Amino acid sequence: GEVVKAGSKTSVFPIGSKVFSQALFGLANNLLGGLQEYTLIDERYTALVPKNISEADAAIFPINTVTSAFALFTGDGEHGGFGFPFPGTPESKTFDYKSITIVIIGGGTACGKFAIQFARIAGIGRVIVTASLDSEAELRSYGATHVLDRKASDLADQIKTFVGDDLVYLYDTFNRGDHTFGVSLLSTTKKGTLLHLIPGQVDEKVAAQKKAGFEERQLLGSSTGHPDLAALFWKVFPEWVEKGEVKVIRPYKVIEGLDADKVNAALDGHRDGVFDRWNVHI
Predict the structure, then answer these.
(1) How far apart are CA 280 and CA 252, in angstroms?
(2) What is the 8-class DSSP label of residue 22?
(3) Cα–Cα distance for residue pair 71/193, rounded to 1 Å
(4) In this structure, are residues 139 and 161 in contact, taking their beta carbons and an 8 Å threshold?
(5) pLDDT in tens, 212-229
(6) DSSP alpha helix (H) spans, the chain
(7) Can you tell me the distance from the alpha carbon of 270 to that of 272, in angstroms, rounded to the nearest whole number?
(8) pTM assigned to the model
């Protein structure tokens, strides 16, 4: 959107600037929401819309990209990720990204697609994703090294063909209610980490098989949750977009106006799978 007013202590974005930002999580404050005509945003988690994309394109990014950046680059605290160094930091200069293998369940989701691109930017050696095979070419163009049919009856066996008993990084962007499948893929002799976006349980018998133990965490894609990394991300990410290192995810559908019926219909569409392969802007 367009900056129409700025606080007295900020001058980062002049009035009239076209920006994109992550709406703050303020359920008790109706000034902070995203589905309204005017909202308050934090300059630390805001950037100018890159010149090579539209405002509608930019609206795809905030929650999806922040969430997957946190999956890869935040530490192992509450709601934290795998803890790889953020690209370009001093720690990243000596970190051996090429030795890393990650598995992404739901590589065809928006969060999955951005996680693939961030993994490529970092230089992670193997990025194995599950997805519909009709998206294989797209996902490989983002940086996936292996794309496996999410509907395959032997999917677990296919994944283990590549990872053996060595998988310690698994990011599940899709499954809800039951995360047993993801845990079953983790190493039994090395302590692994399962990150997921939607709450769920794990079968106790499968969990008990992981003799080295494992971490299981639900990610929250809120810039305020990891402010230092978020501030760095919001500074660097627009440069990645402008250089073409991160692609806009299309197709998407734009719903004009803040009509309650249209908003609810869009949300119902997500619930019912009508927009399963679309991002929806309101």
Answers:
(1) 6
(2) P
(3) 11
(4) no
(5) 999 999 998 889 889 999
(6) 55-58, 62-73, 110-122, 136-142, 155-163, 180-185, 204-208, 227-242, 260-272
(7) 5
(8) 0.92
